[in-house]
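Example for tutorial group B:
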């Protein structure tokens, strides 16, 4: 269960919070154990930090919200058993300060005492404003100023954390379910980390998926939109797939795409990359890109690759 460490947490000095336990194993003759795994979650208010924290809790992390960083050393001690931690910390946290947070992170990571990663959850200002307006919640920095001013002030304050983050996730157009899949790809707990490939189709009219690592444009292929019988269908329909695949350029394009990815995937895995997002776009995101995304996902599965597949425009259309 996710707990809140902001209310009645005991105060302690930096020394008692972990200043001495770095040498504990050496003094007692016990070998130092593996570093504790910690994910710090921060970012813009309203961007989805609570959802991210709950997603990591579902993955097996012990989730704590608003824990003062000075108490982190009390929760994680090298060589002692314990669940990995996911800790939410932001401008609501008691004694929060960007410089003090970065200093505490550096202190705790000194000598690799902690396997600590910083996750920054972001979102466009106008979308944040709509979220606050729709939920009628008050932004923590907009008590005595307009909402947009509070959002801009917060963005200025936390920008050094975004620059320092190991991973930035933008939730502007990311549904909660996809955020959970994205985080699972990066932070799932496994004895042997493996690469998960996420394939998504999208519409260039709606903009590129911000989380994409590789983007491929399929707008050069024949467009089923201009065929009256095919227009109301999607790329999941065999008739649309047949039409797109009959384009003279399709075979060469897909063969080149597969030839590009085949040597890249094992290299990504060897470098420790846990999540790769491949985005395929077309004009409307309903026909050509869907066909290619479906075929690419199947090709990856046939090659033993773990794959998640999403069609952004189709799913958003179903939700409306």
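The residue assignment follows.
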């Amino acid at each position: 269960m996710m707990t809140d460490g902001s209310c009645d947490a005991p105060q302690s000095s930096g020394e008692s919070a972990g200043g001495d336990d770095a040498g504990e194993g050496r003094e007692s003759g016990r070998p130092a154990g593996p570093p504790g795994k910690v994910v710090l979650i921060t970012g813009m208010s309203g961007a989805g930090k609570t959802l991210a924290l709950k997603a990591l809790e579902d993955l097996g992390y012990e989730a704590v919200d608003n824990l003062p960083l000075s108490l982190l050393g009390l929760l994680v001690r090298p060589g002692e058993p314990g669940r990995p931690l996911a800790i939410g910390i932001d401008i609501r946290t008691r004694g929060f300060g960007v410089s003090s947070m970065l200093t505490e992170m550096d202190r705790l990571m000194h000598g690799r005492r902690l396997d600590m990663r910083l996750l920054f959850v972001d979102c466009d200002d106008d979308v944040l404003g709509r979220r606050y307006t729709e939920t009628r919640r008050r932004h923590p920095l907009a008590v005595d100023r307009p909402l947009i001013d509070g959002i801009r002030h917060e963005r200025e304050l936390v920008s050094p954390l975004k620059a320092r983050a190991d991973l930035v996730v933008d939730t502007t157009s990311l549904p909660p379910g996809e955020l959970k899949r994205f985080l699972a790809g990066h932070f799932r707990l496994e004895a042997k980390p493996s690469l998960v490939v996420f394939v998504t189709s999208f519409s260039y009219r709606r903009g590129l998926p911000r989380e994409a690592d590789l983007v491929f444009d399929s707008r050069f292929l024949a467009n089923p939109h201009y065929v009256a019988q095919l227009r109301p269908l999607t790329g999941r329909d065999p008739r649309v797939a047949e039409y797109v695949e009959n384009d003279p350029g399709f075979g060469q394009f897909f063969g080149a795409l597969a030839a590009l990815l085949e040597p890249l995937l094992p290299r990504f895995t060897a470098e420790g990359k846990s999540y790769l997002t491949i985005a395929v776009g077309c004009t409307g995101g309903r026909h050509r890109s869907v066909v290619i995304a479906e075929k690419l996902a199947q090709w990856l599965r046939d090659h033993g690759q773990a794959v998640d597949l999403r069609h952004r425009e189709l799913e958003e259309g179903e939700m409306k």
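The longest helix spans residues 250-270. Compare this with the pattern of hydrophobic and polar residues in the output above.
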